[in-house]
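Dear colleague,

Thank you for sharing your sequence with our group. We've completed the structure prediction you requested, and as agreed, I am returning the results in plain text so they can be pasted directly into your records. Please verify that the sequence below matches your submission; if there's any discrepancy, let me know and we will rerun it promptly.
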Amino acid sequence: MSTAATETAGPAVRVRFLGDFELTVNGAPVRHWRAGKARGLFQYLVVHRGQTLTRERLYASLWPGSDSTAGSSLKVAAHALRRVLDAHPDRPGDSGIRLLYRDFGYVLHVAGLWSDLDRFQDLVHTGLRAATAGDTPLARTRLRSALSLYGGEFLRGESADWVVEQREYLRALALRALGVLRADAEAREDFVDLIGLCKRTLEIDRHHEETYRALMAAHGRRGELACVRRWYELCARRMREELAVAPDPETQLLLRTLLPAAARESAPAALAPTVRALRSPVRRPGTPPWSAEARTPLPPRPVRRARPDNRAPAVRIRAAD
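Please find the predicted structure tokens below.
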């Protein structure tokens, strides 16, 4: 086989986890699974490939609440998986996939595998290390490439605990990458790039307050004060209606700093206790307005003490006469 043909052939097995799950073997997509849990078993084994996973662990992750010693679900799913992927333990097919049973558990081996999950993690980690080392161009390139692979949350639509755990980890990686790129756009004062990165961040996490503050500050520098208020109000409404919390004090302070009118609006509320303290007490019905009870007591007048008489005794006697 020529070098060009080898380079274009690519891996025999390609798996996409980010967004809608997709598996292709030798260029052909796999859409029909012979058992209900065969696909879930393959997904779990690919994420943990090369590791021998015990029956107990597989049942706890894929069939929670089931008895691993009495059930046959795992055997059925493994048999179906071998037939779908031609993954015979002794005679693997052209895909190079082998599913082995070893030491009371299963292990998956895949030759020539490409996974968007693996590639995404590698790019993010490389980009973050470059950012820490001060190599901004490399960090920018790697992190943007990683985000181009993030087509959605991990195994969208699945709700198993192991899926949710992996999903939140990858979401945090994506938000970290976006945070580094957002700081870079702010340093370059690239408003268009910054807005796009903020929009992408809110698509992943609509309650990310740091992003709302970045948008408020960017519009504030451009004098677009109406946009500042609208972003704050959107943030406050989502936090209140969806999380039952108020925006962080840092977000509220930024609003008052950028919009002097907002600071004046909050001033009366701060002065209210002082105003109430200065008001006259409420007069009970039937109490004459001139009565002592109805009048606001005045603070006691300070007592004036007599100054000591330092004059000589003879002078004091003549003054007394």
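Summary note from our side: DSSP finds 13 helices and seven strands in the chain.

Kind regards,
the structure core
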